[in-house]
Structure formats: structure tokens, C-alpha cells
Task: inverse folding
């Protein structure tokens, strides 16, 4: 078992604590999921909440807040569409063997 305490060092350069644990293992690629479903899901949740507030007779401020959430989600959706297009381009450059096949 390696001693990772700060007091246990040699006269030379000490390895960083994380280097002792991970050694020379390669780092995994960071997650880069498609973001459009998250934006659409958030807008759908706000739209459903607005409908429920409107039908339940909630105060106007509540359903107006939900409608504002949908409206603010539109620029977010546009941004995520652009992000996913750039994501596909980055993936094609870094992993040319990666392809998406249509199941139909």
C-alpha cells in the first residue's frame, strides 16, 4: 500500500497523489451527450406546468412564469441545436470510425 501522507517524501521530487493512484492509465473521454433532448424536455415541462396552472385556476403569476420558461427555452433550444451540430463535427474529426446508423 502506498503511503500518500505529505510527510512521507523522498529528498527528490514526489509524485502527485493522483499520479500514484492512477499510474499511467489513460483518461476516459469526457461525456458529451446530445443536448437538444434536455432543452426540449425542459420546454415541455414548463409548457405542461403552464397548462396545469391555467386549468387549475392558479394565480396569473404562476402560469405566466411557466410561459416565460417556454419562451426563454427557445433561444436555449437554438443554442443547443448549434452545440449538437458542432459536437457532430468534433466527433467526426476526432473519431472518424464512429458512425451512427439509422435502425429503420
Result:
Amino acid at each position: 500500500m502506498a503511503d500518500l501522507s505529505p510527510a512521507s517524501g523522498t529528498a527528490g521530487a514526489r509524485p502527485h497523489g493522483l499520479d500514484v493512484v492512477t499510474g499511467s492509465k489513460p483518461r476516459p473521454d469526457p461525456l458529451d451527450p446530445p443536448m437538444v433532448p434536455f432543452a426540449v424536455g425542459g420546454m415541455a415541462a414548463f409548457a405542461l406546468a403552464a397548462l396545469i396552472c391555467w386549468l387549475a385556476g392558479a394565480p396569473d403569476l404562476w402560469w405566466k412564469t411557466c410561459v416565460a420558461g417556454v419562451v426563454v427555452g427557445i433561444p436555449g433550444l437554438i443554442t443547443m441545436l448549434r452545440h449538437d451540430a458542432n459536437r457532430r463535427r468534433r466527433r467526426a474529426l476526432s473519431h472518424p470510425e464512429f458512425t451512427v446508423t439509422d435502425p429503420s
The CA atoms of residues 17 and 73 lie 43 Å apart.
